[in-house]
Amino acid sequence: MHVDEMKIEAGLKPGKVPESGVPAHRARAIMVQGTMSNAGKSLLVAGLCRIFHEDGYRVAPFKAQNMALNSFITDEGLEMGRAQVVQAEAAGIAPNARMNPVLLKPTTDVGSQVIVRGVAQGNMTAREYYRNKWALLPVVRAAYESLASEYDIIVIEGAGSPAEVNLREDDLVNMGMAAIADAPVLLVGDIDRGGVFAQLLGTLELLEPEERARIRGLIINKFRGDKTILDPGLDILEARTGKAVLGVVPYLDVALEDEDSLSTALEQRQAEGGLDIAVIRLPRISNFTDFTALATEPGVSVRYVSSVRELGEPDVLILPGTKSTIRDLDWLRSTGLEAKILQKQARGTLILGICGGFQMLGTEVVDVEGVEGPVGARTRGLGLLPLRTEFEAEKTRTQTRLVLEGLTGEFAALNGQRVDGYEIHMGRTIPDHHTTDAVPRGNAPDDSTRWRDEAMVPAGPASGAVTTSHPADSCLYAQAGNVFGTYLHGFFDRDGLRNAFVERLCRRKGIDPGDREVVNYEAFKEAQFAKLSAALRASLDMARIYEILEGEQV
User: Fold this and answer.
1) How far apart are CA 526 and CA 519, in angstroms?
2) CB half-sphere exposure, 532, CA atoms < 13 A
3) Are 48 and 91 contacting, i.e. CB atoms less than 8 angstroms apart?
4) Active site includes 25?
5) 49, 53, 355, 425: the active-site residue
6) With a threshold of 0.70, does the pTM exceed it?
7) Does 489 qualify as catalytic in the annotation?
8) Annotated catalytic residue within 53, 425, 470, 489
9) pLDDT above 70 for 2
10) Residue 516's Cα: distance from chain center in Å?
């Protein structure tokens, strides 16, 4: 059926939620589940969002529960997973926390910070969370129904695998979510890891009959080579399962942000010539997507290192965000990386810190309210900036816009550059008056360009007020010689600042930046979405997927 005909017949028009709480209009839904984590669900959801958007639909992504350390702050000051942000961009809409009502940010091997409707609720062990998860069902349902009342199509992403039978009870992210949305499911297997036929067959075998009935098609993802070699296996798979194989998706070379620690970006270890930027791969690294834009620059190599041996001689060394500043400071010391960083700084290497990395660059971290450990615990920082951080229980979550001023030396090239970023951190960073060094110019509270400038904290959504914490006396960025730190995620995303930074690095290294191509990051992302859409249209049976979306048997 033609797309326009489907839109009319399905009655895909905006609706209102009556007093009963049941939406007068409910979007069509389709769900992507995987045989395992990192099967490629996030990218496929983004691609389907872009295809439906290109075909004229109002489409939104949804993931009931996400576990990731890469997060984002919306215009309303609410926190959500970055995977759904990318999917929203693919759909041509602004990110909204309803798209990811539950976000888990691991703090230890057995516990996470639990974020519900964009607001942190505290830390829970895995056992505590699963014991209380049933209470989140109304939250998930309300978020989904609210989105479904506004859009034509919702593309839902599952998590992990639906065949994790130990987690079936109170499931709200895989088959439980499919039931809430009454969504047909596309099951994705990852052939790159091997055993894809066993993945798909085994997953189906472990599902309950009513769950198996929801699986309407199979997709093989990340294939390399000649597809015709697979054809005999596909025939057997269809015969054994009674499910149609809707496509074999090639291993896609698209530069879009990946949500979890399995991202291949984190495996980059070797510099590839030109400028060498080394990011310390902290055990609890968060928001490593801060460096995606830098990695798109021609002649710039962004690599992730976790040992002294891998560090080499970078032009810039970056301490990224972390979910646990204190634990990762201890890790830096135990690996010998702290001593190496201090040595590099003394020899003139540029050192940058973002968010948790910024906190590490100061003289001390004080856990005033027991956020990461015992109340009042003190941990020595790297001592490269005369600032101290005081952890407080309330999380700062806000979008922030400012213009950099007062920077000197190698960072002077950034003066006058605008930053549109966002803050996600606990506590505040203030001058440490116990240090013998003078506080760098611009770090006093009366210089607002280094402190809080224009914090964009609009009113919350109609469903309720948003409490957005942003301590007015907390330092936003600071510099001391060849060391710079900031709380702002997305620091390198604006083209002007990134270009000024890269050009300065080129000149510092004796590279002529004259012929360097200037990257338009927004245009680059749009080109990647177009590339993703074209690849999926070529490899998936979109006619059948539309039929599934309409509720027809395939």
Assistant:
1) 12
2) 29
3) no
4) no
5) 355
6) yes
7) yes
8) 489
9) no
10) 29
